[in-house]
Automatic annotation (TrEMBL):
Protein name: Damage-inducible protein DinB
Source organism of the structure: Cohnella herbarum
Keyword annotations of the record: Metal-binding
Record-listed a divalent metal cation binding positions: 38, 120, 124
One annotated GO molecular function: metal ion binding
Pfam families from the UniProt entry: DinB
Similarity comment: family membership: Belongs to the DinB family.
Record carries keyword Zinc: no
InterPro entries: DinB (IPR007837), DinB/YfiT-like (IPR034660)
Amino acid sequence: MKTIRKMYDHLIWANRRILETLQNAETDNQRTIDLFCHILNAERVWVTRLRGMDSSQLPIWSEGDLAICAQLIKQNEENFTTFLADTEEMDLDKIISYANSAGKQFESSMRDILTHVALHGQYHRGQINSRLRADGIEPVSVDYIIFAR
């Protein structure tokens, strides 16, 4: 649990850094903002599933703006912080049943879902940084080691 909690501390830190960079850059690249919204929407969907609730009405992809992103960051931070505080090491192997956005049923361990969410966000934050660089904007480092230092 210590490693998973640390991964989520990093996730929160990295999301905040990306938001701040996008706000300061005042980018008009809607695709970059939509990609950030996707990360945050996916986090919301997964924490909803982890809590045993229906996520079928929540978007995975949506057009958004930075105000929506800021709101999602706050909500996701609160939800994951509460969820992880209530989660014990032995809970990590619990199987979670859920339907994906296409309605197909799956089962995955809580451990695998939590790991997926952390890695999914980092993958897309890398894409965002690539887009920023292509737009002539200095990307923000969200590497784990920088967070850990």
